[in-house]
Design brief:
- The chain has 232 residues and is α/β, with parallel strands linked by helices.
- 39% of the residues lie in helices and 19% in strands.
- It has a domain at 12-67 and 134-231: Rossmann fold.
């Protein structure tokens, strides 16, 4: 008898809480209006997080910038994250996993250097020659389209904290409770609209979770920059 294998069907578990990232950003912005008069800086995690953050920055009439975390993949299995970073020096490693896989310090050093180069390349592609916004003494609102494990967000938080803001707020539309528990003590405030029990992937909760392109990211950031320039 021919053995028939079963295929996991994520569609069975989809519960649409948001039409798309634009709607998610608008709903998230409602919870962040209390910061409008504090002159916050919104930092987006690309790529999808930029669409959400754009709505937040527009509602709060504030500036929009990026923090770009990158995964550190395991040898011969780049999809398996053994760590993450958002800039040189802001590295988070899963020490238990790196030890169990016997990953050498040389490999980690090379991967970190490679990802630092990629972060710089992406920032150049998205922002051109515009310099980073000074975060010192500011209220920073870090925005993504959702959390899964929260590992890359942890690297982003570490990178932001090195720039000495007065306050860090992490704001996302949806996340599993485990990720919330992991990150809530890493920031001054964590705002999450939905924490569903059955969580497989962020896209599970969006009707439209189309991939955000590099071109869209660059266009959104250019538009916000031009709008703020016109205001001044």
């Amino acid at each position: 008898m021919k053995k028939v294998g079963s295929t996991f069907n994520l569609n069975r578990y989809k519960v649409f809480m948001f039409l798309d990232r634009v709607e998610a950003g608008q709903k998230l912005a409602e919870k962040l209006l209390k910061y409008k008069d504090m002159g916050p800086i919104v930092l987006a995690i690309p790529r999808g997080g930029v669409v959400v953050a754009s709505e937040v920055a527009s509602a709060l009439s504030c500036r929009l910038d990026l923090v770009i975390p990158r995964k550190i993949g395991a040898p011969n299995n780049p999809e398996l994250a053994v760590g993450a970073l958002a800039k040189e020096g802001a590295v988070i490693l899963n020490e238990e996993l790196t030890k169990s896989l016997n990953i050498s310090p040389d490999y980690l050093r090379e991967e970190i250097e490679k990802q630092v180069v990629e972060i710089k390349r992406r920032r150049k592609e998205y922002l051109g020659d515009r310099s980073s916004i000074d975060l010192r003494g500011k209220t920073v609102i870090l925005v993504d389209d959702g959390l899964a494990t929260g590992y890359t967000s942890l690297a982003a938080i570490k990178a932001v904290r090195e720039d000495k803001p007065e306050k860090i707020v992490l704001a996302v539309p949806v996340a599993p409770r485990e990720a919330i528990e992991r990150l809530k003590n890493e920031v001054d405030e964590l705002i999450c609209l939905e924490t569903p029990e059955l969580f497989f992937a962020v896209g599970q909760f969006y009707y439209d979770f189309s991939q955000t392109t590099d071109e869209q990211v660059a266009e959104i950031l250019t538009r916000h920059h031009q709008n703020k320039e016109e205001e001044t």
